[in-house]
């Protein structure tokens, strides 16, 4: 068995932005560590006031530039991609299993189930809904349609029930955990 690893390509603008961040990061560090020599060599009689203020906290600013710069670069260059191919066929893709833009294992339906618990600003409304109210209205309409379908099936002599079950857990700080689920459907059985 041969295993080949490669990096998933990132968008060109992200690669460029990452390079700019590297230059800025190293520039800040060099200026702070060697500013007393750099500014006179550039023809400044007196270093800028900002440099004097940052020079007093030199190590904090250098460490901040290092850590924040690396964090920004990592977030720009990390795609979260993981794909497995066997005989040229894709058998697993993390990019296809995660909903676009949601990498926290929480689906939009789960967030809608939590609407009473979470401020509306944090809810991701479906693409066809303008806001959370529209999404909740659509959910209520789906539930009503399921109940109507169940009633129609019962009238035709089949046992049917509509269900719309939402379950979630809330921690002590009132934040929902990731084990949230919501099911909707129609259970049928012949009498």
From TrEMBL:
Entry keywords, A to Z: Membrane, Transmembrane, Transmembrane helix
Membrane spanning stretches: 20-39
Keyword NAD annotated: no
Family matches, as InterPro entries: Selenoprotein_T
A GO term for molecular function: thioredoxin-disulfide reductase (NADPH) activity
Compositional bias segments (type: Basic and acidic residues): 171-191
Any one biological process term the GO annotation gives: cell redox homeostasis
Region (Disordered): 165-191
Alphabetical list of PANTHER family matching this protein: SELENOPROTEIN T, THIOREDOXIN REDUCTASE-LIKE SELENOPROTEIN T
Protein name, per record: Uncharacterized protein
């Amino acid at each position: 068995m041969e295993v080949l690893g490669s990096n998933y390509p990132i968008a060109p603008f992200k690669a460029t932005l990452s390079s700019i961040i590297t230059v800025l990061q190293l520039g800040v560090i060099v200026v702070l560590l060697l500013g007393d020599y750099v500014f006179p060599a550039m023809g400044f009689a007196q270093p800028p006031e900002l440099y004097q203020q940052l020079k007093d906290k030199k190590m904090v600013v250098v460490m901040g530039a290092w850590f924040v710069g690396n964090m920004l670069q990592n977030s720009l260059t990390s795609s979260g991609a993981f794909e497995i191919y066997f005989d040229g066929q894709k058998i697993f893709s993390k990019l296809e299993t995660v909903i676009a833009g949601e990498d926290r294992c929480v689906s939009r339906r789960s967030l809608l189930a939590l609407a009473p618990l979470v401020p509306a600003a944090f809810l991701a409304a479906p693409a066809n809904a303008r806001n959370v109210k529209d999404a909740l209205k659509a959910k209520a309409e789906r539930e009503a349609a399921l109940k109507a379908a169940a009633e129609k099936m019962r009238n035709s002599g089949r046992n049917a029930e509509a269900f719309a079950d939402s379950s979630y857990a809330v921690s002590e700080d009132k934040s929902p955990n990731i084990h949230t689920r919501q099911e909707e459907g129609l259970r049928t059985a012949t009498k």
